[in-house]
Design goal:
alpha/beta, 9 helices, four-stranded antiparallel sheet, 294 residues, Rossmann fold
Protein backbone atom coordinates (compact mmCIF):
# COMPACT_ATOMS: atom_id res chain seq x y z
CA UNK A 1 0.00 0.00 0.00
CA UNK A 2 1.31 3.44 -0.94
CA UNK A 3 2.72 5.53 1.89
CA UNK A 4 0.98 8.79 2.72
CA UNK A 5 3.92 10.15 4.67
CA UNK A 6 7.50 9.34 3.76
CA UNK A 7 10.35 10.41 6.03
CA UNK A 8 13.89 10.27 4.74
CA UNK A 9 17.02 10.63 6.90
CA UNK A 10 15.40 12.94 9.44
CA UNK A 11 17.79 14.36 12.05
CA UNK A 12 17.19 16.50 15.13
CA UNK A 13 19.58 17.49 17.91
CA UNK A 14 19.29 19.52 21.08
CA UNK A 15 22.79 20.88 21.47
CA UNK A 16 25.10 17.89 21.71
CA UNK A 17 22.19 15.48 22.29
CA UNK A 18 20.97 13.68 19.19
CA UNK A 19 17.23 13.08 19.49
CA UNK A 20 16.73 11.61 15.99
CA UNK A 21 19.43 10.15 13.77
CA UNK A 22 18.71 9.46 10.09
CA UNK A 23 15.12 8.38 10.78
CA UNK A 24 13.57 7.00 7.59
CA UNK A 25 10.15 5.38 7.28
CA UNK A 26 6.96 5.37 5.21
CA UNK A 27 3.49 5.45 6.78
CA UNK A 28 0.41 4.27 4.87
CA UNK A 29 -3.08 3.45 6.12
CA UNK A 30 -3.30 1.59 9.43
CA UNK A 31 -1.97 1.80 12.96
CA UNK A 32 1.75 2.16 13.58
CA UNK A 33 3.34 1.77 16.98
CA UNK A 34 6.33 3.92 17.85
CA UNK A 35 7.77 1.97 20.75
CA UNK A 36 10.58 2.95 23.06
CA UNK A 37 11.41 4.13 26.58
CA UNK A 38 11.49 7.76 27.65
CA UNK A 39 14.29 9.56 25.89
CA UNK A 40 14.14 7.47 22.73
CA UNK A 41 13.00 10.34 20.48
CA UNK A 42 9.28 9.49 20.21
CA UNK A 43 7.95 12.87 21.32
CA UNK A 44 10.51 14.69 19.19
CA UNK A 45 9.24 12.86 16.12
CA UNK A 46 5.62 13.59 17.07
CA UNK A 47 6.37 17.29 17.41
CA UNK A 48 8.08 17.35 14.04
CA UNK A 49 5.21 15.55 12.32
CA UNK A 50 2.72 18.04 13.76
CA UNK A 51 4.88 21.00 12.68
CA UNK A 52 5.47 22.05 16.28
CA UNK A 53 9.22 21.54 15.99
CA UNK A 54 11.72 22.21 13.22
CA UNK A 55 14.13 19.47 12.24
CA UNK A 56 17.80 19.92 11.39
CA UNK A 57 18.01 17.92 8.18
CA UNK A 58 16.22 15.31 6.12
CA UNK A 59 13.03 15.30 4.08
CA UNK A 60 9.33 14.66 4.68
CA UNK A 61 6.83 14.17 1.87
CA UNK A 62 3.05 13.95 1.97
CA UNK A 63 1.23 12.06 -0.77
CA UNK A 64 4.33 12.19 -2.95
CA UNK A 65 4.95 15.93 -2.57
CA UNK A 66 7.53 17.73 -0.41
CA UNK A 67 5.80 18.65 2.82
CA UNK A 68 6.87 22.30 2.62
CA UNK A 69 4.87 22.68 -0.61
CA UNK A 70 1.63 21.23 0.80
CA UNK A 71 1.95 22.15 4.47
CA UNK A 72 -1.43 23.87 4.74
CA UNK A 73 -3.24 20.85 3.29
CA UNK A 74 -1.21 18.49 5.45
CA UNK A 75 -1.92 20.35 8.70
CA UNK A 76 -5.65 20.43 7.92
CA UNK A 77 -5.69 16.60 7.86
CA UNK A 78 -3.99 16.06 11.25
CA UNK A 79 -5.58 15.07 14.54
CA UNK A 80 -3.11 15.33 17.41
CA UNK A 81 -3.11 14.28 21.03
CA UNK A 82 0.05 15.49 22.81
CA UNK A 83 1.63 13.71 25.75
CA UNK A 84 0.48 16.44 28.15
CA UNK A 85 -2.66 17.90 26.55
CA UNK A 86 -3.51 21.47 27.49
CA UNK A 87 -7.23 21.71 28.21
CA UNK A 88 -9.24 24.74 29.31
CA UNK A 89 -10.41 24.06 32.88
CA UNK A 90 -13.27 26.58 32.79
CA UNK A 91 -14.79 25.01 29.67
CA UNK A 92 -17.28 22.19 29.80
CA UNK A 93 -16.41 19.07 27.80
CA UNK A 94 -19.01 19.97 25.17
CA UNK A 95 -17.84 23.59 24.95
CA UNK A 96 -14.25 22.47 24.54
CA UNK A 97 -15.03 20.14 21.65
CA UNK A 98 -17.24 22.80 20.05
CA UNK A 99 -14.33 25.23 20.27
CA UNK A 100 -11.93 22.71 18.72
CA UNK A 101 -14.43 21.99 15.94
CA UNK A 102 -14.46 25.69 15.03
CA UNK A 103 -10.66 25.77 14.93
CA UNK A 104 -10.69 22.73 12.66
CA UNK A 105 -13.32 24.24 10.38
CA UNK A 106 -15.92 21.54 11.01
CA UNK A 107 -19.45 22.56 10.03
CA UNK A 108 -21.91 23.10 12.86
CA UNK A 109 -24.20 20.21 12.00
CA UNK A 110 -21.33 17.77 11.46
CA UNK A 111 -19.63 18.96 14.64
CA UNK A 112 -22.77 18.41 16.71
CA UNK A 113 -23.11 14.82 15.51
CA UNK A 114 -19.40 14.03 15.89
CA UNK A 115 -19.20 15.52 19.38
CA UNK A 116 -22.10 13.41 20.60
CA UNK A 117 -20.59 10.27 19.08
CA UNK A 118 -17.12 10.94 20.49
CA UNK A 119 -18.31 11.85 23.99
CA UNK A 120 -20.41 8.70 24.15
CA UNK A 121 -17.52 6.58 22.90
CA UNK A 122 -15.25 8.09 25.57
CA UNK A 123 -17.95 7.61 28.24
CA UNK A 124 -18.13 11.36 28.83
CA UNK A 125 -21.61 12.07 27.50
CA UNK A 126 -23.19 12.20 30.95
CA UNK A 127 -20.66 14.82 32.08
CA UNK A 128 -20.62 16.84 28.87
CA UNK A 129 -21.83 19.95 30.70
CA UNK A 130 -19.39 19.63 33.61
CA UNK A 131 -16.34 21.87 33.87
CA UNK A 132 -13.10 20.24 32.81
CA UNK A 133 -11.54 21.35 36.11
CA UNK A 134 -13.72 18.77 37.85
CA UNK A 135 -12.50 15.90 35.67
CA UNK A 136 -10.09 13.21 36.81
CA UNK A 137 -6.83 12.69 34.94
CA UNK A 138 -8.29 9.75 33.05
CA UNK A 139 -11.34 11.75 31.97
CA UNK A 140 -9.12 14.55 30.67
CA UNK A 141 -7.06 11.99 28.78
CA UNK A 142 -10.18 10.61 27.07
CA UNK A 143 -11.40 14.12 26.23
CA UNK A 144 -8.04 14.89 24.63
CA UNK A 145 -8.34 11.71 22.57
CA UNK A 146 -11.84 12.72 21.46
CA UNK A 147 -10.60 16.07 20.12
CA UNK A 148 -7.88 14.32 18.11
CA UNK A 149 -10.55 12.40 16.15
CA UNK A 150 -12.84 15.43 15.78
CA UNK A 151 -13.21 16.48 12.16
CA UNK A 152 -12.46 12.99 10.83
CA UNK A 153 -8.76 13.70 10.10
CA UNK A 154 -6.77 11.44 7.80
CA UNK A 155 -3.67 11.39 9.99
CA UNK A 156 -3.95 10.74 13.74
CA UNK A 157 -0.89 11.27 15.94
CA UNK A 158 -1.22 10.07 19.54
CA UNK A 159 1.50 10.52 22.15
CA UNK A 160 0.99 8.15 25.11
CA UNK A 161 -2.82 8.07 24.65
CA UNK A 162 -3.54 5.66 27.52
CA UNK A 163 -1.41 7.35 30.19
CA UNK A 164 -3.27 7.46 33.50
CA UNK A 165 -6.10 5.15 32.40
CA UNK A 166 -7.23 2.15 34.40
CA UNK A 167 -7.10 -1.27 32.65
CA UNK A 168 -10.73 -1.22 31.57
CA UNK A 169 -10.53 2.25 30.04
CA UNK A 170 -7.18 1.39 28.45
CA UNK A 171 -8.82 -1.52 26.60
CA UNK A 172 -11.79 0.64 25.60
CA UNK A 173 -9.48 3.30 24.18
CA UNK A 174 -7.48 0.71 22.22
CA UNK A 175 -10.70 -0.69 20.76
CA UNK A 176 -11.93 2.80 19.87
CA UNK A 177 -8.70 3.61 18.06
CA UNK A 178 -8.83 0.33 16.13
CA UNK A 179 -12.45 0.77 15.10
CA UNK A 180 -11.83 4.30 13.84
CA UNK A 181 -8.51 3.74 12.09
CA UNK A 182 -9.51 1.57 9.15
CA UNK A 183 -8.89 4.23 6.48
CA UNK A 184 -6.57 6.49 8.47
CA UNK A 185 -2.90 6.65 9.26
CA UNK A 186 -2.55 6.40 13.04
CA UNK A 187 0.81 6.75 14.76
CA UNK A 188 0.88 5.87 18.45
CA UNK A 189 3.94 6.74 20.49
CA UNK A 190 4.17 4.72 23.69
CA UNK A 191 6.46 2.80 26.01
CA UNK A 192 3.61 0.45 27.00
CA UNK A 193 3.88 -2.67 24.85
CA UNK A 194 0.30 -3.79 25.44
CA UNK A 195 -1.04 -0.54 23.96
CA UNK A 196 -0.02 -1.57 20.46
CA UNK A 197 0.75 -5.30 20.59
CA UNK A 198 -2.61 -6.40 19.20
CA UNK A 199 -3.67 -3.38 17.13
CA UNK A 200 -0.58 -2.17 15.23
CA UNK A 201 0.13 -3.31 11.66
CA UNK A 202 3.78 -2.36 12.13
CA UNK A 203 5.96 -1.39 15.06
CA UNK A 204 9.03 0.82 15.05
CA UNK A 205 11.37 0.31 18.00
CA UNK A 206 13.20 3.58 18.53
CA UNK A 207 16.33 3.62 20.68
CA UNK A 208 18.16 6.86 21.43
CA UNK A 209 16.90 8.42 18.21
CA UNK A 210 17.80 5.46 16.00
CA UNK A 211 15.44 2.82 14.56
CA UNK A 212 16.54 -0.37 16.32
CA UNK A 213 14.00 -2.74 14.75
CA UNK A 214 10.82 -2.65 12.70
CA UNK A 215 8.25 -5.25 11.77
CA UNK A 216 4.79 -6.56 12.50
CA UNK A 217 4.08 -7.56 16.12
CA UNK A 218 4.28 -11.22 15.06
CA UNK A 219 7.63 -10.73 13.31
CA UNK A 220 9.17 -8.97 16.28
CA UNK A 221 7.78 -11.53 18.72
CA UNK A 222 9.22 -14.35 16.60
CA UNK A 223 12.68 -12.82 17.00
CA UNK A 224 12.45 -13.63 20.72
CA UNK A 225 11.91 -17.35 20.05
CA UNK A 226 14.59 -19.51 21.60
CA UNK A 227 15.75 -16.81 23.99
CA UNK A 228 13.00 -16.88 26.64
CA UNK A 229 13.21 -19.34 29.54
CA UNK A 230 11.52 -20.13 32.83
CA UNK A 231 13.62 -21.27 35.79
CA UNK A 232 12.15 -22.70 38.97
CA UNK A 233 14.24 -21.57 41.94
CA UNK A 234 12.27 -22.69 44.97
CA UNK A 235 12.42 -19.99 47.64
CA UNK A 236 16.12 -19.30 47.27
CA UNK A 237 16.44 -15.51 47.20
CA UNK A 238 20.19 -15.71 46.71
CA UNK A 239 19.66 -17.77 43.56
CA UNK A 240 17.39 -15.06 42.15
CA UNK A 241 20.05 -12.44 42.90
CA UNK A 242 22.62 -14.59 41.10
CA UNK A 243 20.36 -14.91 38.06
CA UNK A 244 19.89 -11.16 37.97
CA UNK A 245 23.63 -10.86 37.43
CA UNK A 246 23.58 -13.40 34.60
CA UNK A 247 20.35 -12.69 32.72
CA UNK A 248 17.76 -10.06 31.89
CA UNK A 249 14.85 -10.97 34.17
CA UNK A 250 11.43 -10.38 32.64
CA UNK A 251 9.28 -11.43 35.60
CA UNK A 252 9.22 -13.39 38.84
CA UNK A 253 6.12 -15.38 39.80
CA UNK A 254 5.56 -17.22 43.05
CA UNK A 255 2.95 -19.87 43.83
CA UNK A 256 3.77 -19.90 47.53
CA UNK A 257 6.06 -22.89 47.22
CA UNK A 258 8.36 -21.98 44.36
CA UNK A 259 9.51 -18.92 42.44
CA UNK A 260 9.41 -19.07 38.66
CA UNK A 261 11.80 -16.64 37.01
CA UNK A 262 11.31 -15.68 33.35
CA UNK A 263 14.66 -14.72 31.82
CA UNK A 264 16.15 -13.76 28.49
CA UNK A 265 19.22 -15.64 27.31
CA UNK A 266 20.58 -16.65 23.93
CA UNK A 267 21.75 -19.91 25.53
CA UNK A 268 19.63 -22.26 27.59
CA UNK A 269 20.23 -21.58 31.29
CA UNK A 270 20.81 -24.40 33.73
CA UNK A 271 17.39 -25.81 34.70
CA UNK A 272 15.77 -23.48 32.19
CA UNK A 273 12.60 -24.53 30.36
CA UNK A 274 11.59 -22.91 27.04
CA UNK A 275 8.85 -20.29 27.37
CA UNK A 276 6.46 -18.96 24.74
CA UNK A 277 7.73 -15.51 23.69
CA UNK A 278 5.61 -12.37 23.70
CA UNK A 279 6.34 -8.93 22.26
CA UNK A 280 7.46 -7.60 25.64
CA UNK A 281 10.30 -10.13 25.60
CA UNK A 282 11.65 -8.65 22.39
CA UNK A 283 11.17 -5.13 23.75
CA UNK A 284 13.30 -5.97 26.79
CA UNK A 285 15.88 -7.69 24.60
CA UNK A 286 16.26 -4.52 22.51
CA UNK A 287 16.09 -1.93 25.26
CA UNK A 288 17.06 -3.76 28.44
CA UNK A 289 16.39 -1.44 31.36
CA UNK A 290 17.15 1.71 29.37
CA UNK A 291 15.51 4.76 30.89
CA UNK A 292 15.70 8.47 30.44
CA UNK A 293 13.71 11.64 29.95
CA UNK A 294 12.53 13.23 26.77
Amino acid sequence: MESRIVINELCKSYGATKALVDFSYGFGAGIYGLLGPNGSGKTTLMNILTDNLKYDSGEISYKGKPLKTVKKEYISHIGYMPQSPGLYPAFTAADYLNYISVLKGVGRSAARAQIETLLKAMELWDVRNDRIRTFSGGMKQRLALAQAFLGDPELIILDEPTAGLDPGKRIAVRNFISENALDKTVIIATHVVSDIEFIARDIIMLKKGVIAETGTPAELTAKAAGSVWTICTGKDGDEIKRMRELYDIVSIRSDGENAYVRVLSDKRPENGEPAQPVLEDRYLKVFGEQTGTE
